[in-house]
Amino acid sequence: MWEWLTEWFRRKSNMYWIKTDTILLNYLSMIDVRARWLRSREAGFDQAEKDILDEAIKRRSELENSAPGIYTDAAAWTEVYRLERLMALLEPSQNLLGEIRLRLDEALAERVSAEPRLRAALAIAEANAFDRSKTPPELKPGEEPALRALLLEILEETHWTNQRKFYARPIQKAATRRIVWAGLLSFVLFMLPYVWIYIDIYIHDTATVRDVPGELLIGLPFYTALTAGLFGAYFSRLLYIQKYAGSMSVGELKTAREFTSIFLRGVVGMCGALVVFFFLRSGIVEGSLFPEFAALNVREGKVPLFDVGSGRDVSVRQILPSQALALLAIWCFLAGFSERLVPSILSSTEQTLGNAAKGTKK
Questions:
Q1: Taking the CB of residue 75, how many other CB atoms lie within 10 A of it?
Q2: For 135-174, what is each residue's pLDDT tens digit?
Q3: What is the Cα 241 distance to its own chain's centre?
């Protein structure tokens, strides 16, 4: 009964308990087996090494049997990683090279950024630590500390990477959630005037596009450009977070989570869309891929259908943005989405104007 009440209270208070962490318990069991194996060989240990082994065994037992709420999950994993590094201090010298290679493969699987550097350090340490004139090669006297230090560094880098992932995951989730909401809001803003037009015409059966308030249609192209750039900026940011969160530092993730950073990213997207809007309006470039500003409107058409029951042709009203307005929305979305589009446009324009100025001087 007491255990049931304890478990119920722990769940209600969201209290961490090691006994319910399956992965951590498995890690502790591996440390327990390693400690028992080292205990069977402690005859060759000096007093300092025996003290390290005793401390590791004692702390492992205290950790596993700790009461709910004594440790947070982060603190528990930090202690487990410390115990694993203590075990590395007791690794027999003849096993060091194999253990280092095994841990390097683990670091590669965990995508530790320092893995190439550590592997290069192993090649140098292996060349200096072994006497190749003997068969099989023997570890030179005094070279064991260098290999053990390398093993500890590999473990530290791997543990840091794992702890960073654990710490960064809630930050990434918060940043993703806020960017998704910002993107959803920008999408609603983008669709708002078109939904208004559809609802207004739907309510008034006899209404047409000509009956839509002129004030709405006058500002529609400019509004579409800004909101398309805003939506493109947040869409780009969301994809970036999802793709590169694993390689971003904790500081970068915290910055991405801040409302100020999210707001500024949207402002930058709208500024890029504004630049593209005026660039297209200037008429510097022309062609089928660029909108004609005289045709920026909403058009009404009819879709022909065939009524099987009556055997006669019928049609359905269709209200869509014009091709020019759709092209403008696409260009402005790309301006907000791509960080290189606006700089490349400005660079090419600068080069064109520079060439024109040189031609005038000649």
A1: 12
A2: 777 778 788 889 999 999 999 999 999 998 888 888 999 9
A3: 3
